[in-house]
Design a protein that fits this description.
alpha/beta, about 40% helix, binds 3-methyl-2-oxobutanoic acid
């Protein structure tokens, strides 16, 4: 198989936390995308993403669960390890799955350390404000940088009333702002805003110093994130309003496999270009061996069983 992956441009340096802060200050948009395996990581690398999130959306887009709730640490670790092998320059974020941090600071630190040590991600992300602020503080104190996530937090979507826009009332927007400020105050280096009205996001991000990354939160955040399978059109069925599909890869994949199946059934595949050759003399010798009377008369049941 040929590799089409070009090495990252020589002038492309590894993305660090100070570099992200610098980008925010300079008004240079930050590009974040999810990845869940080696090939998607290589695509993100080659396309020049700044941040790659091994998101717990893997639960839905890769593992076929109905929501993000069921995915385990062990599953996230397998995916994260594969992503690490495909990345050189983007900052790699490991998403803390539901149940890996909420119950206490000790659990949160232990699982954040596990993600970093076993997958090689440089930072972790956890969802929501409230008690998550305490967990974020503990993880940051242990030496692991944390990205916060406010607005629609899929791990707690049921409690939020479903996959719905958040911060639509003044009261809800104030709560969201307080969560974001609290996450910033304990040292989160960046905060994701998901499914928040653009004007609400704009008003809140003005009060924040750390870079914000939006998904369905309008254009005012320092960066944007989309789920790999959504933006490439691998996801089928209904997607959120904020998704823009930049390709239709699912269709292309089905077309490819269908064409292969048709060619196998019509015996058009494999073609001469896809087969290996052999020296005629070697083939003749094989044929002489196969033509022996003693060989053709031998039945499988003539063999002696092993002692
Ligand atoms: O898990 C994920 O992919 C995410 C993004 C939607 C931000 O949290």
């Amino acid at each position: 198989m040929t590799s089409h992956t070009a090495p990252p441009p020589a002038d492309r340096r590894a993305i660090t936390l100070p570099r992200l802060a610098e980008m925010k200050e300079a008004g240079e948009p930050i590009v974040m995308v999810t990845a869940y395996d080696y090939p998607s990581a290589k695509v993100a690398e080659e396309a020049g993403a700044d941040i790659v999130l091994v998101g717990d959306t893997a639960a839905m887009v890769v593992l076929g669960y109905p929501g993000t709730e069921p995915v385990s640490m062990d599953e996230m670790i397998v995916l994260g390890k594969a992503v690490r092998r495909g990345l050189t320059t983007p900052l790699m974020v490991g998403d803390m799955p539901m149940g890996s941090y909420e119950a206490g600071n000790e659990l949160a630190v232990a699982n954040a350390q596990r993600l970093v040590k076993e997958t090689g991600c440089q930072v972790v992300k956890l969802e929501a404000g409230g008690t998550s602020v305490e967990r974020a503080r503990a993880i940051i104190r242990s030496g692991i940088p944390v990205m916060g996530h406010v607005g629609l937090t899929p791990q707690t979507a049921t409690a939020l009333g479903g996959y719905k826009t958040q911060g639509k009332t003044a009261q809800a927007a104030i709560k969201l702002c307080e969560d974001a400020l609290a996450l910033q105050s304990v040292g989160c280096f960046a905060i994701v805003f998901e499914a928040v009205p653009a004007a609400v996001t704009e008003a809140i991000v003005e009060k924040l110093e750390v870079p914000t990354i939006g998904i369905g939160a309008g254009p005012s955040t320092a960066g944007q994130v989309l789920v790999y399978h959504d933006l490439l059109g691998i996801t089928t069925g209904r997607t959120a309003k904020f998704v823009k599909r930049y390709a239709e890869i699912h269709e292309a994949m089905v077309d490819g496999v269908r064409a292969y199946a048709e060619e196998v059934r019509s015996r058009h595949f494999p073609e001469p270009d896809h087969v290996y050759g052999v020296e005629p003399a070697e083939l003749d010798e094989l044929r002489r061996y196969l033509d022996q009377e003693s060989l053709t008369s031998q039945k499988a049941w003539d063999w002696e069983p092993l002692p």
